[in-house]
Amino acid sequence: MKSKALIFSVAALASFATLNAQDQSASSSASAGTEKHHGSGHHHEFGYFLKQLHLTDAQKQQVKQYFSDNKQTFRSDVVNLLKAKQTVNSAIEKNPGDDATIRSLSVNVASARTELTAQRAKFDVFLTSILTSEQKQTLAALQQKRDTRMQNRINHLSQSAS
Asked: Is residue 159 part of a domain?
Protein backbone atom coordinates (compact mmCIF):
# COMPACT_ATOMS: atom_id res chain seq x y z
CA MET A 1 0.00 0.00 0.00
CA LYS A 2 2.85 2.38 0.82
CA SER A 3 4.46 1.76 -2.55
CA LYS A 4 1.20 2.70 -4.28
CA ALA A 5 1.14 5.96 -2.36
CA LEU A 6 4.73 6.67 -3.35
CA ILE A 7 4.03 5.86 -7.00
CA PHE A 8 0.99 8.15 -6.98
CA SER A 9 2.98 10.91 -5.35
CA VAL A 10 5.82 10.58 -7.84
CA ALA A 11 3.31 10.62 -10.69
CA ALA A 12 1.66 13.71 -9.19
CA LEU A 13 4.98 15.48 -8.88
CA ALA A 14 5.86 14.48 -12.42
CA SER A 15 2.63 16.06 -13.54
CA PHE A 16 3.67 19.23 -11.70
CA ALA A 17 6.84 19.33 -13.74
CA THR A 18 4.90 18.66 -16.90
CA LEU A 19 2.34 21.30 -16.15
CA ASN A 20 4.94 23.85 -15.24
CA ALA A 21 6.72 23.30 -18.54
CA GLN A 22 3.64 23.51 -20.74
CA ASP A 23 2.79 26.72 -22.52
CA GLN A 24 -0.72 27.86 -21.64
CA SER A 25 -1.70 28.57 -25.23
CA ALA A 26 -0.19 25.36 -26.56
CA SER A 27 -1.96 23.23 -23.99
CA SER A 28 -5.35 24.79 -24.68
CA SER A 29 -5.06 23.97 -28.36
CA ALA A 30 -3.50 20.53 -27.90
CA SER A 31 -5.56 17.43 -28.32
CA ALA A 32 -6.16 15.15 -25.34
CA GLY A 33 -4.16 12.35 -26.96
CA THR A 34 -1.12 14.54 -27.50
CA GLU A 35 -1.28 15.82 -23.94
CA LYS A 36 -1.26 12.30 -22.50
CA HIS A 37 1.68 11.35 -24.66
CA HIS A 38 3.79 14.28 -23.50
CA GLY A 39 2.82 13.76 -19.87
CA SER A 40 4.10 10.20 -19.79
CA GLY A 41 7.47 11.30 -21.13
CA HIS A 42 7.85 13.81 -18.34
CA HIS A 43 7.02 11.13 -15.79
CA HIS A 44 10.07 9.22 -16.93
CA GLU A 45 12.12 12.42 -16.89
CA PHE A 46 11.35 12.93 -13.19
CA GLY A 47 12.42 9.40 -12.32
CA TYR A 48 15.54 9.94 -14.41
CA PHE A 49 16.34 13.11 -12.43
CA LEU A 50 16.08 11.30 -9.11
CA LYS A 51 18.08 8.32 -10.33
CA GLN A 52 20.87 10.56 -11.62
CA LEU A 53 21.18 12.19 -8.20
CA HIS A 54 22.20 8.86 -6.65
CA LEU A 55 20.21 9.48 -3.49
CA THR A 56 21.29 7.66 -0.37
CA ASP A 57 18.84 5.34 1.34
CA ALA A 58 18.24 8.04 3.97
CA GLN A 59 17.53 10.63 1.26
CA LYS A 60 15.19 8.24 -0.54
CA GLN A 61 13.33 7.74 2.74
CA GLN A 62 13.07 11.51 3.21
CA VAL A 63 11.64 11.93 -0.30
CA LYS A 64 9.21 9.11 0.35
CA GLN A 65 8.16 10.75 3.62
CA TYR A 66 7.73 14.12 1.87
CA PHE A 67 5.38 12.58 -0.65
CA SER A 68 3.53 10.74 2.06
CA ASP A 69 3.10 13.92 4.11
CA ASN A 70 1.87 15.87 1.10
CA LYS A 71 -0.15 13.13 -0.60
CA GLN A 72 -3.55 14.69 0.04
CA THR A 73 -2.46 18.11 -1.22
CA PHE A 74 -0.97 16.59 -4.38
CA ARG A 75 -4.06 14.51 -4.99
CA SER A 76 -6.42 17.41 -4.41
CA ASP A 77 -4.45 19.71 -6.72
CA VAL A 78 -4.32 17.12 -9.50
CA VAL A 79 -8.06 16.40 -9.15
CA ASN A 80 -8.81 20.13 -9.30
CA LEU A 81 -6.78 20.48 -12.48
CA LEU A 82 -8.42 17.48 -14.12
CA LYS A 83 -11.90 18.74 -13.25
CA ALA A 84 -11.10 22.21 -14.59
CA LYS A 85 -9.76 20.72 -17.83
CA GLN A 86 -12.80 18.47 -18.10
CA THR A 87 -15.11 21.47 -17.73
CA VAL A 88 -13.27 23.40 -20.45
CA ASN A 89 -13.26 20.39 -22.77
CA SER A 90 -16.98 19.92 -22.24
CA ALA A 91 -17.64 23.59 -22.98
CA ILE A 92 -15.59 23.37 -26.16
CA GLU A 93 -17.46 20.25 -27.29
CA LYS A 94 -20.88 21.72 -26.54
CA ASN A 95 -20.33 25.19 -27.94
CA PRO A 96 -16.93 25.75 -29.53
CA GLY A 97 -17.92 29.25 -30.68
CA ASP A 98 -18.59 30.53 -27.15
CA ASP A 99 -15.23 32.21 -26.71
CA ALA A 100 -16.22 34.13 -23.56
CA THR A 101 -17.27 30.99 -21.67
CA ILE A 102 -14.25 29.02 -22.80
CA ARG A 103 -11.91 31.82 -21.72
CA SER A 104 -13.71 32.19 -18.42
CA LEU A 105 -13.47 28.46 -17.65
CA SER A 106 -9.83 28.42 -18.73
CA VAL A 107 -9.03 30.71 -15.81
CA ASN A 108 -9.83 27.78 -13.51
CA VAL A 109 -7.35 25.61 -15.40
CA ALA A 110 -4.69 28.29 -15.02
CA SER A 111 -5.41 28.57 -11.32
CA ALA A 112 -5.11 24.82 -10.82
CA ARG A 113 -1.82 24.82 -12.76
CA THR A 114 -0.58 27.60 -10.50
CA GLU A 115 -1.27 25.48 -7.42
CA LEU A 116 0.61 22.54 -8.92
CA THR A 117 3.51 24.79 -9.85
CA ALA A 118 3.66 26.08 -6.28
CA GLN A 119 3.74 22.48 -5.01
CA ARG A 120 6.57 21.69 -7.39
CA ALA A 121 8.52 24.70 -6.15
CA LYS A 122 8.03 23.56 -2.55
CA PHE A 123 9.34 20.12 -3.48
CA ASP A 124 12.35 21.68 -5.22
CA VAL A 125 13.17 23.60 -2.03
CA PHE A 126 12.82 20.41 0.00
CA LEU A 127 14.91 18.35 -2.40
CA THR A 128 17.67 20.91 -2.51
CA SER A 129 17.72 20.99 1.29
CA ILE A 130 18.58 17.27 1.53
CA LEU A 131 21.15 17.08 -1.27
CA THR A 132 24.90 17.11 -0.86
CA SER A 133 26.87 19.78 -2.72
CA GLU A 134 27.86 17.21 -5.36
CA GLN A 135 24.23 16.19 -5.84
CA LYS A 136 23.24 19.86 -6.12
CA GLN A 137 25.79 20.27 -8.93
CA THR A 138 24.37 17.20 -10.67
CA LEU A 139 20.85 18.58 -10.28
CA ALA A 140 21.91 21.95 -11.69
CA ALA A 141 23.47 20.24 -14.70
CA LEU A 142 20.32 18.16 -15.28
CA GLN A 143 18.15 21.26 -15.00
CA GLN A 144 20.40 23.08 -17.46
CA LYS A 145 20.03 20.22 -19.96
CA ARG A 146 16.24 20.35 -19.51
CA ASP A 147 16.22 24.12 -19.97
CA THR A 148 18.35 23.80 -23.11
CA ARG A 149 15.94 21.22 -24.57
CA MET A 150 13.03 23.51 -23.80
CA GLN A 151 14.77 26.50 -25.39
CA ASN A 152 15.57 24.42 -28.47
CA ARG A 153 11.90 23.48 -28.71
CA ILE A 154 10.87 27.13 -28.36
CA ASN A 155 13.36 28.11 -31.07
CA HIS A 156 12.09 25.37 -33.36
CA LEU A 157 8.47 26.36 -32.89
CA SER A 158 9.29 30.06 -33.30
CA GLN A 159 11.04 29.37 -36.58
CA SER A 160 8.16 27.26 -37.82
CA ALA A 161 5.72 30.09 -37.11
CA SER A 162 7.64 32.63 -39.20
From this structure: no
50 DSSP assignment: H
User: How many domains are there within the chain?
Assistant: 1
Q: Is residue 14 part of a domain?
A: yes
Q: Tell me whether residue 108 is in a domain.
A: yes
The answer to whether residues 150 and 21 touch, using CB atoms and an 8 Å cutoff, is: yes
Q: Note whether 5 and 66 are within 8 A (CB).
A: no
Q: What is the pLDDT of residues 1-35, one digit of tens each?
A: 544 444 445 455 544 444 444 333 333 333 333 33
Report the C-alpha gap between 96 and 91 in whole angstroms.
Answer: 7
For residue 160, being part of any structural domain is answered with no
C-beta neighbour count of 1 within 10 angstroms: 5
- Residue 76: give the domain boundaries: 2-154
Query: Which residues are CB-neighbours of 91 under 8 A, at least 6 positions away?
Result: 98, 101, 102, 105
Predicted TM-score (pTM) of the model is 0.68
